[in-house]
Amino acid sequence: MTITVRAESITKTFNGSQKALDQVNLSVNHGEVLVVMGPSGSGKSTLIRTFNGLEAIDAGQLEIVGIPLDSDQDERQIRRIRRRVGMVFQQFNLFPHLSILDNITLAPIRVRKISKANAEERGRGLLAQMGIADQAMKYPSELSGGQQQRVAIARALAMDPELMLFDEPTSALDPERVKEVLDAMRRLAADGMTMIVVTHELGFAREVADRVLFMDAGRVVELTDSSTFFTQAKEERSRRFLNQMAH
Amino acid sequence: MTGSWTAYRKRLLQARRHPLQTVLSVVILALIAWVVWSTATWLVFGADWSVVSENLPLFAVGAYPENERWRPCLWLGLLCLMTATTLLQPLMSARWRISGLALSWCWLAMLPFGLLLLAGGAGLPTVSSRDWGGLTLTVLLTGFSGLLALPLGVLLALGRRSKLTLPRHLCRFYIDGMRAVPLIAVLFFGQLLLPLFLPVDIEINRVLRAVVAFALFAAAYVAEDVRGGLQAIPSTQLEAAAALGLGPWQIQQLVVLPQALRVAVPALTNQAIGLLQNTSLMAILGLVELLGISRSLLANPAYIGRHLETYIWLAGLYWLVCTAMALMARQLERQGPSASTSAIPS
Fold first, then answer.
1. Which residues contact A41 (CB under 8 A, 6 or more apart)?
2. Which of A10, A17, A31, B83 is buried most, with the most CB atoms less than 10 Å from its CB?
3. Class of B128-336 in CATH
4. CA distance B257 to chain A (A)
5. Chain B partners within 8 Å of A141 (Cβ)
6. Which of these, B263, B246, B264, B268, lies nearest to B255 by C-alpha position?
């Protein structure tokens, strides 16, 4: 089985003292869905942001989709990784000056040098897959939050990534819009996409995740398969967190 | 109308508690009426507009050779047509509407086309830039200076925000330095001192020297306006673009600048209008643009004492061109989606 993400004792310090990541070890297999949970400030977002070079690590070794990455950030390595790793942000971060379709085709045309016609055909296909085919010519500000986030997923998928990173994709959404985004992610997981998802959605984690990574204060507290995590978490800290989330 | 009139009456008359205020209002209104009346009668009966009516071609094209005058006139006519087309776009039915992109290219093409018409070549007899003048020269100076200043200003703004120390400091030094120098000094340097430094046999066209001086000066101000626009773009936009694998230049070109320039449009319009009016400084330095040609007309004994008429006419012309520019800029602002709605966390 191929390994998509390998992290060996990676460490990241903010402002000289505060440890955002402390000796994190992790490996994620091809086709696996890993959910990362933990209280705010525990380093979840920082962790997945190191996987595509948005945050530099201070020490340790990363290997993402077969490309090594260490503390001296080589720009060319990072770009090679980013071409093959999609990311979805909490605030969608669509480009407000481009139409929905242009948002999706921008990177395929400019980075992968795919012809405009092909990119648009694929883009429309992805929008249909996300259930928003009729929104192609609108602008981001004309869409609801849930629709915007689905566009963001389509934009990432347009690069045919081997790995998808989700940074709290539903945290900025109205409760009734959360489901449409989670459903899209469920379908993606069912298609065999390798996914690392930072989320507070227990239902999604229980149902879709293969494994759960629980973090606190930059450390890995527990890394186990999801059924074990939700029924018989080993660590006291994880049980306390789950208890709080359930109430 | 009646509604607002009632409101006015209420505010102006009924709400007054003191009779002195009413008296004062009446006196001031009478004063305004007298000023308006006497100005209007002077404009219609008192003024002698022959200085304007007899010299319309001079105001338009300056000392351009008479049998070639159709060339600058054609250019001015085309510019008027383009302005009208641009301003009337929102009123047109979809069938007659021209895309913003095509329109922008047409505007851009007007500049080299105008230069070709004025200077000659390609079958037209050449006309020395010494003979260019009037409104044509004013518009030409403004257009080319602005065209050069914009990319230069964008580069300076990007350089000022660069992570590299040397370019950042160089750009800051240039911007701060240029803003510390008065425009007239830059123009003097270009027109009078530069020829002294250059070898005798090298002579750079005077119009070109003026354009370069204006562009170098305006670029510093444009850079600050663009920097303001750049700062309005949240860093999450850069992250999203970077995460897609776009390179640093692609990120600036495709994601950051299109948004930043749109934010900067009102400030850039300010610069463009300022630039148009600043071209009148060239009258002191010997170019016969709109103000220059007026000054030389007033020196003509036939038009002695016609200052007021000439300057009112000039003010009207400048006002007309500025208004057209402002209206077109407002249209540019309205184009496309309202920016940044999705970039700002809800």
1. A217
2. A10
3. mainly alpha
4. 10
5. 337-338, 341-342
6. B246
Burial label for A93, CB within 10 Å (0-12, 13-18, 19+), is buried
Q: Is A201 helix (H, G, I), strand (E, B) or coil?
A: coil
The pTM for the full model equals 0.82
Q: What does pLDDT average to over chain A?
A: 92
Nearest CA in chain B to A148: B342
Q: List pLDDT tens digits, range B114-154.
A: 888 888 877 788 888 788 888 999 999 999 999 999 999 99
Chain B touched by A159 (CB under 8 Å): yes
For β-strands A194-198 and A163-167, DSSP reports them as: parallel
CB contact at 8 A, A245 and A38: no
Domain boundaries, chain B: 1-45, 128-336
What is the reported pLDDT for B14?
59
Q: How confident is the model at residue B339 (pLDDT cuts 50, 70, 90)?
A: very low
Higher-confidence position of A218 and B97:
A218
Residue of B290, B288, B266 whose CA lies nearest to B276: B290
Q: Which pLDDT score, from 0 to 100, does residue A153 have?
A: 96
Tell me the CA distances in angstroms from B66 to B57, B180, B299, one per residue in order: 9, 43, 21
Amino acid sitting at position B128: S
Pick from B148, B80, B87, B70: nearest CA to B112: B148
* Chain B residues closer than 8 Å to A82 by CB: 242-245
Q: Does B337 touch chain A (CB under 8 A)?
A: yes
Cα torsion at B174, B176, B181, B186 (round to 10°)?
A: 20
What does DSSP say about strands A18-29 and A3-14: parallel, antiparallel, or unpaired? antiparallel
Q: Which two tokens stand for residue B196?
A: 């002294």
Q: Write a three-state SS string for chain B.
A: CHHHHHHHHHHHHHCCCCHHHHHHHHHHHHHHHHHHHHHHHHHHHHCCCHHHHCCHHHHHHCCCCHHHCHHHHHHHHHHHHHHHHHHHHHHCCHHHCCCHHHHHHHHHHHHHHHHHHHHCECCECCCCHHHCCHHHHHHHHHHHHHHHHHHHHHHHHHHHCCCCHHHHHHHHHHHHHHHHCCHHHHHHHHHHHHHHHCCCCCCCCHHHHHHHHHHHHHHHHHHHHHHHHHHCCCHHHHHHHHHCCCCHHHHHHHHHHHHHHHHHHHHHHHHHHHHHHHHHHHHCCCCCEHHHHHHHHHCCHHHCCCHHHHHHHHHHHHHHHHHHHHHHHHHHHHCCCCCCCCCCCC
Average pLDDT over residues A143-156: 94
Facing residue for B245 by CB, picked from A91, A145, A159: A159
Coil, helix or strand at residue A213 = strand
